[in-house]
Amino acid sequence: MKKSFKLRIFLHVVSIAAVVIGFNRLTAQHFLTNQLQTRIHQEMGVALQTCEEHFQQPSEFLSCFKALEKGGLFSNMSDFYVLCDRPHNTAKALAVCQHLLANGEFWRGDSVVTQGPIEFSHGSVGPQSWFAVRFKDRLNSPEVWLDGKEIDLLMLRVWALRDRNTIYALPTILLTLFALTLYLTYVVMRPIISVQNNMAKLTANTLDQSIVLQAPFREFETLVKVFDDLRFRLNDSFTKARRFASDASHELRTPLTILRGNVERLIHDLPLGSDAQVRMRSMGDEVERLIEITEKLLLLSRADANSLKQDLTDVNVSQLLTQLVKDAHSFQSSLKVTSAIAPDVIWHCDKTLVHQLILNLYANAVNYNQAQGWIHLTLAQSNGSFQLSVENPISNAPADLSERAFDRFYRGDASHARQVDGLGLGLSICLEIAKLHKAALSLRVTEKQTVVATLSAAL
Q1: What span, in angstroms and rounded, lies between the C-alpha atoms of 350 and 309?
Q2: Residue 404 pLDDT level (bands cut at 50, 70, 90)
């Protein structure tokens, strides 16, 4: 079983979308963390610069800052500030501040950034990460410190909230992704289907039409050009094959006719019943066979070239079949011929071609039959159309009879030994005549081991 191109596109789009969503999540988490750290760090500088006069009273300092950032998203981070003043450390913060202020390297290096009168620094003091701000030109100025783990905890709460909301939104995300993927698959497949539909219009009779294949987009122009070149080559090959069959059949008719006349004269001149006369009569039969082949090949080549001429008239199909059954009773003594023919079925068609079609169907039923077998002809009319069926029993029906019955020169498994009479062209001619009259012709082998050839056409 071959893989589905649509399914492959769908899975690839879903996979790419999942990778993009995952990458976007990781990228957003990285950049948003840095942005939040920078924002909180800047707010520490605002707090120091604005509320310095309340620095000795931590509660008043925090109240001052929160009044500035009332309703702010990160104002509660000020609860975790560590206020250090080198000459006036409080007892509560004395131990922490002594440890922080003793690290002289913290305010040196590339991590120190100056904005106006405030210096910002971020680094490690011992095993912990800290953020700090102070006045730039005042060495003994107050400093505000914040433990980096408090920012990390805030970020964890933010991501936990986002993950919880993602779970709620997941069905909508999946449904939207599914719909977008289906739409993208449709957009991708639409030009391919357009080219496919145009190519499906190509037949042996439309290969010379240059407007059949059209590229919906310029990316398909190369593909269409390749198929257009192939179409030209196929059309040229078909034309040459038709011309050869027509020319060969036409050229063979004259010498074969002359050969037949000479054979008939030799048969008449040879002693009656002699071996030479028998061999000559056998040769005459083969010449007749060659003449029949050339006539049928000429008819088929004309059909391929759409040059079969029709002389349309109203034909009473019921009378044709009735006459055929009468003749069969007279000349076909080994087979039982029965019929169920609806009266007065009138078909506007070419009488000569349709008569040949009916005779070929009957000849096929005779050739593929059993000893002491039967043939049943049915003609039914309904709703402005008719159906003609020719049924006969068959022994050891070829396995591919239903599929290949209309192939040229096909006569089943016994054809090579010529156990089946005929040329293998009769049904092919029937099919071409049916197509010419816009009728449908089919052949099937039933479970009862019978062959049914069916012709359906509108009246």
Answers
A1: 9
A2: confident
